[in-house]
Design brief:
The complex is a heterodimer of chains A (686) and B (286). Chain A has 686 residues and is an alpha/beta fold. Chain A contains 27 helices and 15 strands. Chain A is 37% helix and 12% strand. A five-stranded mixed beta sheet of chain A has the order 12-11-15-13-14, with helices on both faces. Chain A has a four-stranded mixed beta sheet with strand order 2-1-3-6, covered by helices on one side. By secondary structure, chain B is α+β, with helices and mostly antiparallel strands. Classes of the chains: A alpha/beta (686), B alpha+beta (286).
């Protein structure tokens, strides 16, 4: 491969950002400015460098976090370091909505404009901000903060805080350092929001420096620290700003404008437990620790029953773990409801090695926030679950693919992984059992499609997050072409009660076909929006009664944008996979979005269509063009009903049927569900 | 006639194709089986020298037991599977996919599409006059070839031909997302600033004419392009000793473009800049 890198040069900042991730370049072949004598005698790079292709996405994050956008020079330098063709890297950079390849201000305010949040905030903030303020306002798809809508995320690019800078790699052997550390957290300001960093353990399993001292007190109960002066970083010049994120939910125009100008002064996010109305209630299996446990303390987690399930797993062995999970009847909670035991068995029995475990934490379905609440409120439970899943499937490395819009979850998980590693709960010898397992966090960068399992693999590997066609299935050829078990966060944490209470007791919960507890994300027109845990089989009405049902309920969207609407007279639908299927709808990822009769239905449908048009990867024709045609037809009939709308509704049906039948992946296949159900069940446009 | 590599013997897979028993070598796709059985399944993104990306979804067929339709070009035949290639369901999907494509891009230079539009009774106009489409000016930034995005269906064939499947130059990529996705070189700049080595193998595989020789583009613009009057002569490239086959397309005693036979076991239709574009000296008559 004779790559052509062009003449554009990185700025010092961009070079520092990339070098902080990859270590300084060893030779001119991979981007060093000066050619040494040895460089003239042989070529470096090649295969060794190209095998680092999966560091492209972290590299793009490093550039984007540092300067706010990905410039030509910065991208070319990253490509040189990783031996990635610039055309391909440009294709990857332009795929994700959180990256920009055009200059933009260092501060970007991402305002959620999705179903629950609505669109009004965007304009109000823009109007308040001085055009010279150096702040860009961007509309964002669902930020996963639906229980505290309206939501916004402020990201200010800058140098990573000094005390989180990575240890400088050894100059004589930069590659041995491993993928290193992307430090993109802010200093310890009074805000919990946005304390975030990525700590990659690297491909090896060597322990990395523990960061507890810095992070140990970062809990919800943590007393506010005085804001630190910016510009203390060793690398940045005096007065240079540090990287900061601030999550505002609920966001008001005044507070958001202030946070946009000075994100380090943004008010602290409320604790994750506030999103769980049932917090502290007896009998919860998945949410039992949230609100009781300090999410930053491994000891507290253990004091609350943590790591009992992993001990059980080691006691019974991998085959028995899989049998327990199979006997428990655990079905995947990400939306597809595939039997987890079967997936694990199929992965474990593959002769090809290594096996990988992937945790899909790219929760991007509008209306979903349950995984975020678990990760923020009880992060160690996910680490423990992943360790068990890795043990059962024979994997020694687990990737946790976390959506880019969750800075607090990133911070909590990074800390939890570092602490677990320091205590021998991750690493070469987990719990002294001779089993090696480690977890690497990968940050998504704003692409709903990356929640599709094969698109997620492509994203981790440093390619565009386009889905692959199946077969072959991931259990056979998944991440890096190796057998891979991929599970979503909620599915994984269900493994803990299965192992602690036994498969039989677990299977006794719920119904015969849908066993165990289920998390529901209730939002919209209810009194107490939040995440609810109920045994499978409770009805929609029972769930809504818990959350406070409005008198003027117009419709409920089940399963998010890819799900379907049901009417207020259908509240006796049992919330099980089979019950919703029999009722002609879907449980999806557990979204329950209540709409009262003040919400304009055509606007919601338009937003759903716009969402899918925006989030389609563009790979296949039915989805790429079909989602556009769907949105156009909905625009045409937005104010029309009856006979006036009939022609366009017929057109929508034909295009929808083709999207469902002929699209490559679930995004295109489900893009018409909600609109169809609104027409058929709610009588929209009648 | 070129040599045909035989390869190792393969087992036969038996399955049911439109109610008939079909036997194909292991690893064959449903499309291979259809072609062997003389069935016409329309395809756009499939190419004889490349691994299909199955992005166009024109060739979808019904596989019994599957929730969705399967792309015939990529789905391998499995023993015992039951495949239906011409049902109401497959015809419906093909019709709408053709409509979606024809309403968003210019398929006027795509072979066979006019016939399929007729066969499947596709009416691309029914999405209305305001239906989004590209409407981009062709990019002419060099003397060798032209990129006409208005005709691009994003089949990924040029990306694969430029990338790891043939040329290993990696100058072309898909950029952006969704309806805004485009084929581009790095930083979406002009070809002359890119890694492009002008082998023209992307033109060779382009199914729609979105990539074309500047000579063909200019003649089409002038209205002088006439394939009826063209003759094709396959010869050997005179530049080096590899001996690549060239097919000279000649109109009115002028070479108007150069292709290469896809069944050649050495080149598989690929050439370098000299073989593809270096023909002016042949017709320099001074």
């Amino acid at each position: 491969m004779d790559l052509h890198f062009g003449d554009s040069k990185p700025t010092d900042e961009e070079r520092a950002a990339v070098d902080a991730l990859l270590g300084p370049p060893g030779t001119a072949w991979e981007g060093a400015d000066d050619r040494s004598d040895t460089d003239l005698r042989w070529a470096r790079g090649g295969r060794a460098a190209r095998e680092r292709r999966d560091e492209l996405l972290p590299g793009l994050h490093a550039l984007n976090d540092r300067v706010g956008w990905v410039s030509e020079g910065g991208l070319d330098y990253l490509c040189r370091r990783l031996m990635v063709p610039p055309a391909e890297a440009y294709g990857v950079a332009t795929f994700y909505s959180m990256f920009s390849v055009r200059p933009r201000p260092a501060t970007v305010v991402r305002v959620c404009t999705d179903l629950v949040c609505g669109a009004s905030l965007c304009g109000e903030v823009e109007a308040r901000l001085d055009p010279a303020s150096g702040v860009a306002v961007e509309a964002s798809p669902c930020l996963g903060l639906c229980e505290r809508a309206p939501a916004a995320l402020v990201v200010r690019a800058g140098v990573p805080a000094a005390h989180f800078s990575p240890t400088p790699p050894l100059p004589e052997n930069p590659l041995a350092q491993g993928p290193g550390v992307t430090a993109n957290r802010l200093d310890g300001s009074s805000s919990n929001a946005g304390r975030a960093e990525t700590l990659s353990p690297g491909r090896g399993l060597s322990a990395r420096p523990a960061f507890e001292d810095e992070l140990g007190e970062a809990g919800d109960q943590r007393p506010p620290r005085p804001p630190r002066q910016s510009g203390f970083s060793g690398r940045g010049g005096v007065g240079e700003k540090t990287y900061v994120t601030a999550t505002l939910a609920p966001a008001a125009p005044e507070t958001l404008t202030q946070a946009a100008l000075a994100p380090e002064t943004a008010p602290a996010e409320p604790p994750a437990a506030l999103s769980v109305t049932q917090a502290g209630q007896e009998g919860l299996l998945l949410l039992n620790r949230i609100g009781k446990v300090d999410p930053t303390s491994l000891d507290d987690y253990r004091a609350h029953g943590g790591y009992a399930a992993l001990r059980t797993a080691f006691a019974i062995g991998p085959a028995e773990v899989i049998r327990e999970v199979t006997d428990a009847g655990l079905l995947g909670r990400g939306g597809a409801a595939f039997p987890t035991g079967r997936k694990w068995q199929a992965t474990a029995s593959q002769p090809d090695h290594p096996h990988y475990l992937v945790c899909n934490a790219d929760e991007s379905e509008p209306g979903t926030f349950k995984d975020r609440v678990i990760m923020e409120g009880d992060p160690y439970s996910l680490i423990e679950s992943m360790t068990i899943a890795g043990y059962a499937t024979g994997a020694h490395l687990g990737y946790l693919y976390l959506r880019g819009e969750y800075p607090r979850a990133l911070e909590r998980l990074t800390h939890a992984i570092a602490e677990a590693r320091a205590r021998g709960l991750l690493g070469d010898d987990v719990l002294g059992q001779g089993y090696a397992f480690d977890i690497e966090i990968r940050r998504g960068a704003g692409a709903y499609i990356c929640g599709e399992e094969t698109a997620l693999f492509n994203s981790i590997e440093g390619y565009r997050g386009e889905p692959r066609s199946k077969p072959p299935f991931p259990v056979e050829k998944g991440l890096f072409g190796k057998p891979t078990a991929e599970n979503n966060v909620e599915t994984l944490v269900n493994v803990l009660p299965i192992l602690t209470m036994g498969a039989q007791a677990y299977a006794a919960i719920g119904t015969e076909k849908s066993t165990g507890p289920k998390l529901f994300c209730v939002s919209g027109s209810v009194e107490r929006p939040g995440i609810y845990e109920l045994p499978f089989g409770a009805t929609l009405g029972e769930l809504l009664a818990l959350a406070g049902i409005p008198d003027n309920l117009r419709a409920v969207l089940l399963g998010g944008a890819a799900g379907g609407f049901v009417r207020p007279d259908e509240l006796d639908i049992p919330l099980t996979f089979e019950g919703t299927r029999d009722a002609g709808t879907t449980l999806g990822s557990g979204v329950v979005l209540a709409l009262d009769d003040t919400v304009p239905l055509p606007r919601i449908l338009l937003r759903i269509a716009e969402f899918f048009r925006d989030e389609s990867c563009g790979q296949c024709v039915p989805c790429r063009v079909g989602t556009v045609r769907q949105e156009e037809a909905l625009h045409r009939i937005v104010e029309r009903t009856g006979a006036d709308a009939a022609g366009d509704i017929a057109l929508l049906r034909e295009v929808g049927r083709t999207m469902r039948d002929a699209s490559i992946c679930g995004l295109g296949q489900t893009a018409w569900n909600a609109v169809e159900s609104a027409i058929d069940r709610l009588g929209a446009y009648k | 006639m070129t040599a045909v590599p035989l390869g190792i013997p393969r087992r036969l897979v038996e399955f049911t194709l439109d109610g008939q028993n079909a036997r194909v070598p292991e690893g064959s796709t449903i499309l291979d089986a259809c072609r062997a059985a003389g069935k016409d399944v329309p395809t756009l993104c499939e190419g004889d020298t490349l691994t299909p990306k199955n992005a166009c979804r024109v060739c979808v067929v019904e596989v019994e037991g599957a929730r969705t339709l399967a792309p015939a070009c990529s789905r391998r035949a499995e023993p015992g599977m039951t495949v239906l290639t011409d049902t109401e369901r497959t015809r419906h999907s093909r019709k709408v996919v053709l409509e979606l494509l024809a309403s968003s891009v210019d398929l006027s230079t795509t072979p066979k599409v006019a016939g399929w539009l007729k066969e499947y009774e596709a009416k691309p106009d029914r999405f209305g006059p305001d239906a989004a489409r590209l409407n981009e000016e062709p990019r002419v930034d060099n003397d060798l070839y032209v990129r006409d995005y208005d005709k691009c269906i994003l089949c990924y064939k040029c990306v694969d031909a430029c990338g790891d499947q043939w040329q290993n130059t990696f100058a072309i990529s898909v950029v952006g997302r969704g309806f805004d996705a485009r084929i581009a070189v790095e930083h979406d700049g002009p070809l002359t600033d890119s890694a492009c080595v002008y082998c023209g193998n992307c033109i060779e595989v382009c199914p729609t004419g979105a990539l074309s020789f500047k000579s063909e583009f200019d003649m089409r613009a002038a209205g002088t392009w006439d394939e009826e009057r063209q003759t094709e002569t396959t010869t050997v490239c005179a530049y080096c000793g590899v001996g690549c086959n060239l097919t000279l397309h000649v109109q009115d005693n002028d070479i108007v473009k150069v292709t290469s036979p896809h069944d050649n076991p050495v080149t598989h239709g690929n050439l370098c800049i000299k073989g593809r574009f270096g023909y002016q000296h042949v017709q320099n008559r001074d």
